Amino acid sequence: MSDTDHGTVFAIVLAAGHGTRMRSNRPKPLHRMCGRPIVLHAIWALCDVLPERTVVVVGNSAERVTKRVQESSPEWANVVFAEQAEQRGTGDAALAGLTGIPGDDLDDESTVVVLPGDAPLLLPSTIVELVTTHVRSRNAATVLTAVVADPTGYGRVIRGPDASVRAIVEERDTDDEERQVTEINTSVYAFRRDLFSPALRRISPHNAQSEYYLTDVIAVLSGMGHRVGGVEADAAETRGVNDRWQLALAERELRARTNRRWLLEGVTMLDPRQTFVDVDVQLGRDVTLYPGTILEGTTTIGDHCTIGPQTRLTDCAVGVSSTVANTVGREAEIGSGCTVGPFAALEPGTHVADGSVTGAFYTAGIDTAASGAPADGS
Fold first, then answer.
1. d(Cα 305, Cα 295) in Å, to the nearest integer?
2. Which position has the higher pLDDT, 173 or 46?
3. C-alpha to C-alpha distance for 302 and 286, rounded to whole angstroms
């Protein structure tokens, strides 16, 4: 990446928290949204800066999170892991993350992007803007901010007369004047590596939560005379996920984005609000999706297919010019020119041969090929 406008980039993804508000035995980073764990969405937001290394900081359920991320991370992300053994705040987590970045951090002006593992709506273009602005402005740090009508619960971005960022104050520590500020911290940053590590080592846990706040690094750098900038993003894009309600809202937004992309690519959806397409699904040209269609995992649909209504396909492949109606299938393959359903059930390993017509109430197991006659459902 040294030949690009934004130079060499490293990334630290903070995914060590307990996520107690999810009220789940599943670690918060592994809760799924549109077919991917939410921490994977954060990693994918880095796809246009292609980090030299992405350090995922784990803590709670470290083994489970590490295993899942290892299995699913894109190769370009170059993911490694660092463990925050004791939950002592985001500053401590970032310090743990720095241990996973190779080389001498005191003689390296590359950029370190730090982002939370529970912000699944971040767009790659926003990360590019953050990093590019950071490098071109020669900032010591650049904060991704948002302006909201009600900033309750968020850290406030405090700017100086020259519009540089002087500090980020967590709400518990704000005074009356700071509490009125509507520009908030999104917990996404770009730091100059050679300045980041020394600044992290100068923060202290003297605050309302007795934790090491990553936000305190901003005041440290500013106090040392370094410039800290800010890039404003859409508040909706930067929302984090802390409970099931927020997860549902984020999923609705991401599904709308996904459906819009496919509509513009030549897919017909009779009602996008009742059509559910995971982010890793692939759709051909002139595909029609009826209401109640759910396409999950790595499902692929060929050109000129009609899917639905009330059809759920998970990790399936459908050939060109096939119709699949009122069907449930998992890890099944449907050939070209087929008519499957209504009310078909395709078990893992099922293969429906090209040109087949299954008829109603068709049930198929491994290596079953439809003969063209209606099945008896046995």
1. 13
2. 46
3. 9
Q: What average pLDDT does this structure show over 90-118?
A: 91
The closest of 227, 285, 236 to 257, measured between CA atoms, is: 236
| Residue 69 CB burial class (10 angstroms; 0-12, 13-18, ≥19) | buried
Measured CA to CA, the distance from residue 125 to residue 130 in angstroms comes to: 9
Q: Residues in the chain, how many?
A: 378
Percentage of residues in the chain with pLDDT exceeding 70? 94
Given pLDDT bands bounded at 50, 70 and 90, which one contains residue 4? Answer: low
The confidence score (pLDDT) of residue 371 equals 46
d(CA 38, CA 29): 6
Spatial CA neighbour of 142 closest among 199, 201, 202, 227: 227
The answer to whether 324 and 311 are in contact (CB under 8 A) is yes
Q: Which pLDDT belongs to residue 228?
A: 97
Residue with tokens 């996920």: 241
Stronger pLDDT, 171 or 264, i.e. the higher one:
264
Residue 192 to residue 327: CA distance in whole angstroms: 53
CB 361 within 8 Å of CB 378: no
Give the full edge-to-edge strand order of the sheet including 323-324: 268-269, 288-289, 306-307, 323-324, 339-340
Please give the distance of CA 305 from its chain centroid, rounded to a whole number.
Answer: 29
CATH homologous superfamily for the domain 9-238: Spore Coat Polysaccharide Biosynthesis Protein SpsA; Chain A (3.90.550.10)
DSSP annotation of 34 reads T
147: burial class by Cβ within 10 Å (0-12, 13-18, 19+)?
middle
Three-state SS at 55: strand
The three-state DSSP-derived secondary structure of 188-250 is: EEEEEHHHHHHHHCCCCCCCCCCCCCCCHHHHHHHHCCCCEEEEECCHHHHCCCCCHHHHHHH
Question: If we measure between CA atoms, which residue out of 257, 218, 214 comes closest to residue 33?
Answer: 257
Q: CATH classification of 265-364 is 2.160.10.10, yes or no?
A: yes
**Are the CB atoms for 185 and 154 separated by under 8 Å?**
yes
Break the chain into its structural domains and give their ranges: 9-238, 265-364
The pLDDT score that the predictor gives to residue 211 is: 87
